[in-house]
Design a protein that fits this description.
447 residues, alpha/beta, seven-stranded mixed sheet, four-stranded antiparallel sheet, 16 helices, 17 strands, globular
């Protein structure tokens, strides 16, 4: 039997990591588990023992075996929850010195009673004329500038994704995604009854031939992509590949949802959106949560011509439209240069944090763009992502196992089972450096 019991344990661990088995959920009795899988009772005992050793389950005499904790669920609610671990390399919200002072200055005019009266009223999905003009100026890049009348607003970028998918895809519809994708898209798809179809990628990002092949197999209703600083791999798609993807979605006549939430970290030309190549097919999603702060933010959605009403209706029906106060704050922060100054500071901050990664994880198989706030780490053998995440948690460090990003079944999750993502933005730099040294030390030992 060799290591067969480890493979069974890996499958259960992947189910826990993906949220298919939640905290407190009871596993079947060992004899039932053994019968269902055609294995010996002794092997089942070793499987459960391995899960206990990894800290994933707890056995209670007379009651059974229960899931103790899922290191990372398949997705989070539309407002993400913070981990309780002392060092957070899971959530990824950048902040820079002086940020609060800059934001406070922009908010001060809104606190006057005469201004506050208007700022606390409701706003439509199309926002206000001032918000549309400000957002169009902020999103302009590489010779592309969205028309202000194509702008809609959500509470944040996650809600913008939910709104556009609700508008484009009926329950049961298929949406193509990179095989590693933003975990919250998995949660959104599950809530909307959408089937995610993992698509192959390479060093340039999503492969157009994979998109076309998936559509021929069974029609796709849309495709969701992150071509600029893809999360978690930090791949940025070349201009040639963007043109090829634009041709591909045009050929198969499906819309594309382009998530650009990290694009502000890139120079203009390399961040040129797919919408510059296929404007009639592309829905652009962006927001202020990474540029500014997660607690008071706005999501931007650029829609193709003639699709604003149905998309706005989806945002309204989901309760995902932006608040008027947040819109007014965004207009001021964009107009007075606050966002520009924060972006410049965060670009420098991300580069400094990547230097810490290069220093402390030197010699390991780490993929990271020098501009990105995250790193994708293929662990040395025999480490597996769930075991390594548990070992990190024991040392007070929260990280994200690779299977959390995998879209699809066990085969796709298995391909990411020896990888973890490190979010670099949340921990203070000295704390980040200590965490990276600790993780490097753990990786050099055997599990």
């Amino acid at each position: 039997m060799g290591d067969d019991y480890r493979r069974f344990a890996d499958r259960i661990a992947a189910d826990i990591a993906a949220g298919r088995l939640g905290p407190g959920e009871r596993l079947p009795p060992q004899r039932v588990f053994a019968r269902r899988r055609g294995i010996a009772a002794s092997t089942a005992g070793r499987v459960y023992g391995e899960l206990v050793r990894r800290g994933l389950v707890v056995g209670e005499v007379g009651r059974g075996t229960f899931v103790r904790a899922a290191p990372v669920p398949s997705g989070r609610p539309l407002a993400e929850q913070a981990t309780t671990a002392p060092v957070n390399l899971e959530l990824n919200y950048p902040s820079v010195p002086g940020q609060s002072e800059l934001l406070a200055a922009g908010l001060a005019p809104l606190l006057r009673p005469d201004v506050l009266d208007g700022a606390t009223r409701t706003a439509p999905a199309a926002g206000t004329p001032a918000a549309r003009e400000a957002a169009a100026a902020l999103l302009a890049t590489g010779g592309w500038r969205p028309a202000p009348d194509r702008l809609l607003f959500a509470g944040n970028a996650r809600q913008a994704i939910a709104g556009v998918l609700a508008a484009l895809v009926r329950p049961g519809g298929r949406v193509g995604v990179e095989w590693l994708t933003y975990p919250l898209v998995k949660e959104i798809a599950a809530r909307l009854g959408i089937v995610l179809v993992p698509l192959a990628t390479d060093e340039q990002g999503l492969r157009p031939d994979a998109l076309a092949a998936a559509h021929r197999s069974a029609p796709l209703s849309a495709v969701y992509v992150q071509p600029t600083l893809h999360n978690p791999t930090s791949v940025t798609t070349s201009e040639d590949r963007r043109r090829q993807l634009a041709d591909a979605v045009r050929d198969v006549r499906i819309p594309v949802v382009e998530d650009r939430i990290w694009s502000f970290l890139c120079a203009e030309e390399s961040a040129r959106p797919l919408a510059a190549y296929a404007p009639e097919r592309t829905y652009v999603v962006d927001g202020l949560s990474k540029r500014v702060a997660p607690g008071l933010t706005v999501g931007f959605l650029v829609v193709p011509g003639g699709r604003d009403e149905e998309t706005a209706a989806a945002l309204r029906s989901g309760g995902w439209t932006a608040g008027r106060f947040a819109l007014e704050a965004a207009v001021r922060w964009i107009g007075d240069g606050t966002v520009t100054r924060l972006v410049a500071a965060k670009r420098a901050d991300a580069e400094a944090r990547q230097r810490l990664v290069a220093q402390h994880l030197d010699g390991f198989a780490v993929r990271a763009d020098p501009r990105a706030y995250f790193a994708w780490w293929r662990l040395p053998r025999p480490w597996r992502a769930d075991v390594f995440a548990a070992a990190a948690a024991e040392r007070g460090i929260a990280i994200t196992p690779g299977p959390a990003f995998a879209a699809g079944g066990r085969g796709v999750e298995g391909a990411a089972s020896d990888c973890v993502r490190l979010g670099l933005a949340t921990a203070a730099p000295p704390e980040l450096a200590r965490a990276l040294r600790t993780l490097a030390g753990v990786a050099r030992t055997r599990p």
